[in-house]
Design a protein that fits this description.
144 residues; alpha+beta; five-stranded antiparallel sheet; 31% helix; binds zinc ion
């Protein structure tokens, strides 16, 4: 499968390594990385490496694999951030490449039932590096 889009696409750039992000998960088909504009610490994007406009464009098997990865990453985020509450949603307006946001949630985080896109966390780069390291370590500790 080609891993790039003929159109400019920020997420295809990340897949090609042209737009460095803190990677928390990678296999031959999928890439997980920390969002640079996090709604909360640990806000992760999971994407198929192949360019699909929407997750709903993926074939059923690939969509199933995507959500198996979502579950695995959600469980890692639960452990790293000591919260059961992990939001997963399929966006698609901000970047036109299929993706799933995973956002750790906390009772006092200021968001409503769904995350408020106007509430963004300023997390120093060194802390983003450490968050990514912890998530990768948790994924290695509990392979799914
Ligand atoms: Zn793309």
């Amino acid at each position: 499968m080609p891993a790039s889009s003929p159109l400019p696409c920020v997420f295809c750039d990340i897949v090609r390594g042209e737009n460095p992000h803190e990677i928390i998960y990678e296999d031959s088909e999928f890439l997980g990385f920390l969002d640079k504009y996090p709604l909360n610490a640990g806000h992760t994007q999971l994407i198929p490496k192949h360019h699909y406009r929407w997750v709903w464009d993926m074939d059923k098997a690939d969509l199933g694999f995507l959500f198996m990865k979502v579950q695995r990453i959600a469980k890692a985020l639960q452990n790293v951030f000591e919260t059961d509450w992990i939001i997963a949603d399929t966006g698609g307006i901000g970047v036109p490449h299929a993706h799933v946001h995973l956002v750790p949630r906390f009772e006092d985080d200021g968001h409503g039932e769904l995350p408020d896109p106007k509430i963004l966390r300023e997390i120093p780069e060194s802390e983003m590096v450490e968050i990514a390291r912890k998530i990768r370590a948790e994924l290695e500790r509990a392979p799914g």
